[in-house]
Design goal:
By secondary structure, this protein is of the alpha+beta class. It is built from eleven helices and seven strands. A three-stranded antiparallel β-sheet has the order 5-7-6. A two-stranded antiparallel ribbon has the order 1-4. The radius of gyration is 20 Å and the shape is elongated.
Length: about 290
């Protein structure tokens, strides 16, 4: 069993970095303690999970418990994750009745969740036909990457205006290239950690609007970003790139940090552009709705 660290997609006004707290990261039997502000610690939840990426998701089993009827918000979050993770196939059709049966609720909270997902571009609702999950548009995803470069460089700019960079220093320690704290093989833990690095920078920046935009962009690119995750050799490069970004910020060298960040994101963009149709539509993890 391993512990995975995930940043909650918290949107709201930044809290002052007053109290201190410890975040415990772990890989295999090695514990890593990262000292950070209490406000950042509150946005991190520890998920105890068995890392088995080859395990398929059982069909017809909702991710969330239905002992208590799920709310529209919970249904929205659950469906969003199913779409992003390709457990609901791109281009597939679902209906309110199917989803109501799946979540064991009335159609009202399902309808609210679907309308929100449509407003965010995850699906389209057609009268008397049902809901159609978005197809993967690799050109559009490439454009999201272009926007992501600008957003993340703005995050770095905000960080250089801060006086206290202790949280950034702790983040740099976590990505020490010699430590390899998250391993060197492609795993769910490593994927989570890589994505969380960028969220942690946004949280440290104390700019809630940038965090919100970053969360939205990642929601649209996460599917191909994870399918196109690099090789073991590139994973080692990722440690170095993350570490250098933090170190350049600690030295207040914003132009160099922004260049490093842009190159880092462009490499991810290139990997995403190599994702094949078989990877997108042949994952074998699709949830079937009766």
């Amino acid at each position: 069993m391993n512990w995975i660290v995930r940043i909650d997609r918290h949107i709201g006004p930044p809290e002052p970095p007053d109290h201190r707290a410890e975040l415990v990261f772990a890989h295999q039997d090695k514990a890593i303690v990262s000292h950070c502000s209490e406000s950042l610690a509150l946005r991190v939840r520890m998920l105890k999970t068995e890392l088995n990426t080859s395990e398929q998701m059982p069909c017809m089993e909702p991710i969330i418990s239905v002992v208590n009827k799920p709310t529209a918000q919970q249904i929205y979050e659950n469906l969003r994750e199913l779409i992003i993770s390709l457990h609901i196939a791109p281009g597939s059709r679902v209906t309110e009745n199917q989803l109501a049966d799946y979540f064991q609720v009335s159609r009202t909270p399902v309808r609210a969740a679907l309308q929100r997902l449509e407003s965010e571009g995850f699906l389209s609702i057609k009268s008397k036909q049902g809901c159609f999950i978005r197809n993967i548009d690799l050109l559009q995803i490439s454009q999201y990457y272009d926007v992501r470069v600008s957003i993340e460089n703005m995050v770095l700019q905000e960080i250089t205006r801060l006086k206290d960079l202790s949280e950034l220093r702790a983040l740099a320690d976590l990505w020490q290239p010699d430590a390899l704290n998250f391993g060197v093989t492609v795993s769910e833990q490593l994927k989570e950690a890589e994505e969380n690095f960028h969220y942690q920078l946004a949280v440290i920046s104390e700019n809630s609007v940038l965090l919100q935009y970053l969360n939205d962009i990642n929601g649209h690119i996460r599917t191909v970003r994870r399918l196109g995750f690099p090789t073991t050799e590139s994973i080692k490069d990722t440690y170095g790139e993350h570490y250098r970004i933090c170190q350049l910020l600690l030295y207040r060298d914003l132009p160099a940090a922004q260049d490093e960040m842009a190159n880092h994101i462009r490499k991810s963009q290139d990997c995403a552009s190599r994702v094949t149709l078989h990877q997108l539509y042949g994952s074998g993890k699709t949830v079937l709705f009766s």
